[in-house]
User: Fold Cytochrome c2 from Rubellimicrobium thermophilum DSM 16684.
Amino acid sequence: MFDTMTLTKIVGGFCGALLVFLLGGWLASAVYGFYPARDSHAEGHEAVQGYVIPVETASAEAAPEVSVEEMTAEFLAAFANADAAAGESQFRPCAACHSLTAGENKTGPYLAGVVGRAVDSVEGFAYSGALEKVADVWTPENLNLFLANPRGFAPGTAMNFRGVPNLQDRANLIAYLAAHPG
Assistant:
């Protein structure tokens, strides 16, 4: 049943596959200019980049820094015109980790009554401790700063969310949350 011809076929198959992979690698190197990783500090073996993409360096004037006071004033104007119904669509990504039912924690704490609630105050939820270092109460202004850039507002937060970039969207979302008291 198992003879030398079967063994020869198996070894030949492995050798053939190895040859195909080696030739494929050689062909890819020739076509795309890919050079295998080498020690670039070794004498005579400098790695050559095939194509350099020119990138403009950012100047200091490109993005002027906005102060917290200016950001808060802009937010308050947007919050005065906020539409809670439009905030419902902004809450949909939040619903993956948060609930609007009091006492129902998911990956994140429930958000019913979050506007005006003390930070890190939901019973039964293990917070990272980063939020209480930057705020005491979830005022609309604090929620705005947090939702704009969670990791920038509270470095070390466990919340894995990039933020809501649009100011009016954040205002609508906070108005929606304010409409759901605990």
Residues 128 and 148 are 19 Å apart (CA to CA).
